[in-house]
């Protein structure tokens, strides 16, 4: 999830665990916020190339085993900073829960979180919530604000906000399952054979969902809103030569993307270069992770900037979310 959400969640967990202890509420909240953002500092690590930096984000710093090992030290620092050394064990519980919940909500996105290290490097990804979702974050911020104002029921309101956010996360899983069922039925009705299917929410909402299926000819993309009046999903088909995946399977970037995306990627050859695209994040014509591999000169792999046009994308998102049938805001890639 985004930094603001992780900050708010860490602060809310700290307030819940430490709320009944004497001391500064502000210090407790700020310490929880810092602890909540610590795991994402792994973004400053350079693993040697842009693809490795992508697939090795959310690794050791997000692994429950290593978080458990480092929690006693971080808890001691937190108790020291908040002048609550007599409450070390409570800070230890708070610290461990903050790190654990950080990892838990990251794993709910589609990116991939390797929380099982060192026992397994599987990138777990439920994919039921977008990396930024105001309906998850706002209750946490409101609860924290009430708590910091020292209202009589501040602690209860903060705890209630955690319950509301957690319930929304559960709702996202239920909505994802519902959309998956709708998509499977629609694909069956259209007699469209597919090998894999991915269902993820559109940006900022769990009302609109994106469906990607891998087919023998390439892949197809469709959108479905929970407010659509028909369960039929219109798919945009993109032709891709899957044999390129086998032809260049020995290349490290291809191997990494194949593993990390769990098969939801494409390979295009453009002269002496390969274009590698992670199909999970973004949408056709605007992907977050696209990489160019130079086959001729062994130049470093570089990442293409994401194509963004918020003046077009946001109005489309708003209208399509409410059930209005609209084509994608980005033109399909030329086949």
UniProtKB/TrEMBL annotation:
It comes from Rheinheimera pacifica. This is Inner membrane protein. InterPro entries: Transcription_regulator (IPR053170), YdjM-like (IPR007404). It holds the Pfam family YdjM. The chain crosses the membrane at residues 63-81, 88-105, 125-148, 155-174. It comes from the Bacteria. The keyword Ligase does not apply. Keywords: Membrane, Transmembrane, Transmembrane helix.
